[in-house]
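> forwarded from #structure-qc
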């Protein structure tokens, strides 16, 4: 049942435009904050401000009673006529970013599960019950970690998530006001004893630090939350500045000419914006600044690299390149026979190579006659050479990579195809003229596919 005493709606202003007319899914632990969010969202649903409401509770299986707590969260929802579901997860021993703390691993497992829930209900938005006290704690923890503007901006009220949006409508609401809406609610909130364990940083800050801060500075929570809002505005300005300097932030290549003439601080801002667009966490500040120094002072034939967690950036001549963990795929250790090139070649990793008919004139269009004999695929070698034009000398493969601007660490993913016992083709790089279809004839070209991706 809803509270008997009407409570002023703390969010009477308009919702963010990206949230309007979208169904809402509340992630609920069943605790006091989640229960308060449920009550307010239910009222908005009854008022027609949101078209539909559902609840999902994530069971992390970290406590003996965790399944019961998720059941209580669903019972709270059911008492208001709101549909609810439980999603059980297994928390990994280390998350994908290399974090080993229970807090980080549980958070990653939780949001991965919530992303699956949103994917199954297109158009819905995720809501969490974060409030003003949570925001202030996040700012203080960011300060203690030495975070910059991005960290100090803490949690955004609305952010892209899993192809939809993650909405935190209660970030400006004081904890006392959140809890007040549940005073008369007949279903009790969950009491998770781990929330009292000060071995966890957030619990320590909440229970040991904030009471002392509030005793000295009563408005500290509001002040820190306001600081987060100011930092978020500054971050937006910095992002727009970086976007002006580097229009295509989503590209895996950042031309160094975009950074020339900028202060080291402006260079760092542009690189951070580029990193953020790749979906990665920020590199440590000291290591980023040292990397920026290296790319400005190292010789052009050097390739400074910055690595943190599973991510990396490497300079190759006049550009920075986004490098996946471990670099490119390793070269083939054992050659692979392709006895009938008219049939697809299946790779152990699920990749498939096949030939399709192609119009004449392409630099990598192979003559049909070469499909009637077996091929062999192997790793290219330093001594391999290809002739690109009739009468021209054969050129070393390394030189062809350099001419086409292929970074050194990406070259290992290229394979060489032998025909008639001779180096003939490095797909994606060059085809020896001996094996190329004549200019007036059609031929065949190679396509790479992932099996099951259709």
């Amino acid at each position: 049942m809803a509270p008997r005493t009407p409570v002023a709606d703390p969010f009477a202003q308009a919702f963010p435009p990206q949230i309007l007319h979208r169904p809402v899914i509340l992630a609920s632990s069943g605790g006091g904050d989640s229960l308060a969010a449920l009550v307010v969202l239910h009222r908005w649903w009854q008022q027609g401000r949101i078209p539909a409401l559902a609840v999902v509770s994530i069971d992390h299986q970290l406590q003996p009673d965790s399944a019961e707590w998720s059941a209580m969260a669903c019972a709270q929802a059911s008492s208001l006529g709101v549909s609810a579901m439980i999603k059980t997860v297994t928390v990994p021993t280390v998350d994908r970013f290399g974090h080993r703390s229970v807090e980080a691993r549980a958070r990653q497992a939780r949001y991965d599960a919530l992303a699956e829930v949103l994917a199954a209900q297109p158009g819905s938005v995720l809501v969490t019950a974060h409030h003003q006290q949570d925001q202030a704690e996040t700012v203080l923890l960011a300060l203690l970690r030495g975070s910059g503007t991005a960290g100090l901006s803490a949690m955004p009220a609305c952010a892209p998530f899993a192809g939809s949006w993650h909405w935190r409508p209660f970030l400006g609401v004081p904890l006392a006001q959140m809890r007040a809406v549940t005073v008369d609610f007949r279903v009790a909130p969950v009491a998770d004893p781990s929330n009292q364990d000060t071995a966890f940083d957030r619990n320590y800050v909440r229970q040991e630090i904030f009471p002392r801060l509030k005793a000295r500075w009563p408005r500290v929570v509001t002040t820190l939350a306001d600081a987060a809002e100011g930092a978020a505005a500054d971050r937006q300005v910095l992002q727009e500045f970086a976007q002006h300097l580097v229009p295509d932030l989503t590209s895996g290549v950042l031309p160094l000419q975009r950074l020339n003439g900028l202060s080291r601080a402006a260079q760092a801002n542009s690189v951070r914006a580029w990193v953020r667009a790749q979906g990665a966490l920020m590199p440590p500040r000291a290591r980023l600044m040292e990397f920026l120094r290296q790319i400005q002072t190292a010789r052009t034939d050097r390739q400074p690299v910055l690595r943190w967690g599973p991510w990396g950036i490497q300079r190759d001549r006049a550009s920075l390149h986004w490098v996946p963990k471990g670099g490119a795929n390793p070269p083939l250790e054992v050659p692979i026979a392709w006895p009938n090139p008219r049939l697809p070649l299946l790779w152990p990793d699920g990749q498939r190579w096949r030939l399709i008919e192609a119009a004449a004139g392409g630099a990598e269009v192979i003559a049909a006659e070469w499909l009637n004999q077996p091929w062999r695929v192997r790793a290219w070698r330093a001594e391999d050479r290809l002739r690109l034009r009739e009468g021209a000398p054969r050129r070393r493969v390394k030189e062809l990579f350099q001419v086409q601007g292929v970074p050194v660490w990406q070259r290992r993913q290229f394979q060489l195809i032998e025909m008639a016992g001779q180096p003939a083709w490095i797909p994606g790089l060059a085809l020896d003229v001996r094996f190329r279809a004549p200019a007036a004839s059609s031929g065949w070209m190679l396509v790479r596919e992932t099996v099951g991706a259709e």
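QC bot note: The CA atoms of residues 34 and 186 lie 15 Å apart. The chain has eleven helices and 20 strands.
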